[in-house]
């Protein structure tokens, strides 16, 4: 049975997300430097004790640009996160590097950068990763090949098809091998490449698709699932008239981790989200996030589980914008997974989570 005994009374608490402008530190002679940040006081309520409790943090980012010539610009971006939920003596509050990349842009010819950045599949996957707290996790995983934030990425991007077709963008990405000793098996990857294309059709409507393929490391390939990890997605979104709607469908092969470091032979994934921005500052959010594992070959005793739900939840939440710098938000993740032999053996949580937060941003 699902455990839905979570603080339903918290739902009337309104939450807000605003977009704030970064603070400009320097802007002179073609050189520009911006500083941005977010400080979030956040608490999770859940019967899952690994999730329940403080989840506060601070994020800071710095972005620089320099105009080399009229058509050539250099740029770089760095963002770090400082976690605040552990004691000062625990050593668990070390900073985490979320982004660190630098590159060069050649007018309509496009841009090229290298470093820690978003993987190519996230060009479309990010369309549904807009929930107040949760979301974007049916197959998108940090350092999971090119599905979300990852390291060792070289990315070429071109907007408006070299200036010839307004709204038609494409990108090509290469990821170098990440298999050092400090990486877990599921955080590693071999050499890979991917590409994406999105098209803004006008009137707020956009469509897009992406594909990525990578070598699996020798350690990963020992599970017998093969030497390649592949993923593809497609999506559509509408963003106009204070209404935001987005839907994506994706499939992965030998790429997606589930539970306690198991890898799915195949996943089929759906993410749907709907939000509306009221003039008052209230922005309610409703979403469904789902991932189906196929041909898993997951054995528990004498029984083998092949086709199982890996992620399945309905998300009900809201932002509330006081102004561009201060937001409150609430997010209720209604877990639709059942507690059974499969979820227990794979260490997949089946409990609901409520997130409540205050956010200051600049």
TrEMBL record:
Keyword Membrane: yes
InterPro entries: Gram-neg_bact_OMP, Gram_neg_porin_domain, Porin_dom_sf, Porin_gammaproteobac, Porin_Gram-ve
Signal peptide residue numbers: 1-22
GO cellular component: cell outer membrane
Membrane protein topology class: Multi-pass membrane protein
GO BP term (any one): monoatomic ion transmembrane transport
Gene Ontology MF, one: porin activity
Protein name: Porin OmpC
Main location: membrane
Location of this chain's protein in the cell: Cell outer membrane
Family: Belongs to the Gram-negative porin family.
Alphabetized UniProt keyword annotations: Membrane, Signal
Domain of life: Bacteria
Gene3D superfamilies: Porin
Keyword check for Plastid: no
């Amino acid at each position: 049975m699902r455990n839905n005994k979570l603080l339903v009374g918290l739902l009337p608490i309104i939450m807000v997300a605003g977009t704030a402008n970064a603070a400009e530190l320097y802007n002179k002679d073609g050189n520009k430097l911006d500083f941005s940040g977010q400080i979030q006081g956040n608490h999770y309520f859940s019967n899952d004790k690994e999730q329940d409790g403080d989840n506060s943090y601070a994020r800071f980012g710095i972005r620089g640009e320099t105009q080399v010539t009229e058509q050539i610009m250099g740029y770089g971006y760095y963002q770090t996160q400082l976690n605040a939920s552990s004691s000062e003596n625990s050593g668990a509050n070390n900073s985490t590097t979320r982004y660190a990349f630098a590159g060069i842009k050649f007018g309509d010819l496009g841009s090229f950068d290298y470093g820690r950045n978003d993987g190519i599949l996230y060009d479309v996957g990010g369309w549904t990763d807009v929930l107040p707290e949760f979301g974007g996790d049916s197959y998108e995983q940090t350092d999971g090949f090119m599905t979300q934030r990852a390291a060792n990425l070289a990315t070429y991007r071109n907007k408006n098809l070299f200036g010839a077709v307004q709204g038609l963008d494409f990108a090509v990405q290469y990821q170098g091998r990440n298999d050092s000793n400090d990486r877990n098996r599921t955080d590693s990857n071999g050499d890979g490449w991917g590409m994406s294309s999105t098209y803004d059709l006008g009137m707020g409507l956009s469509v897009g698709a992406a594909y990525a393929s990578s070598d699996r490391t020798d350690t990963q390939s020992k599970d017998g699932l093969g030497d390649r990890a592949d993923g593809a997605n497609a999506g559509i979104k509408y963003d106009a008239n204070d209404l935001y709607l987005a839907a994506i469908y994706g499939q992965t092969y030998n790429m997606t981790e589930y539970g306690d470091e198991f890898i799915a032979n195949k996943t089929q994934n759906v993410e749907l989200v709907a939000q509306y921005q009221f003039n008052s500052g209230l922005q309610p959010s409703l979403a469904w996030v789902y991932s189906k594992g196929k041909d898993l070959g997951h054995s528990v005793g004498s029984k083998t589980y092949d086709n199982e739900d890996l992620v399945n939840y309905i998300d009900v939440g809201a932002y509330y914008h006081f102004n561009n710098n201060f937001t409150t938000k609430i997010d209720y993740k209604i877990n639709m997974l059942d507690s059974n032999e499969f979820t227990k053996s794979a260490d997949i949580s089946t409990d609901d989570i409520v997130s409540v937060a205050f956010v200051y941003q600049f």
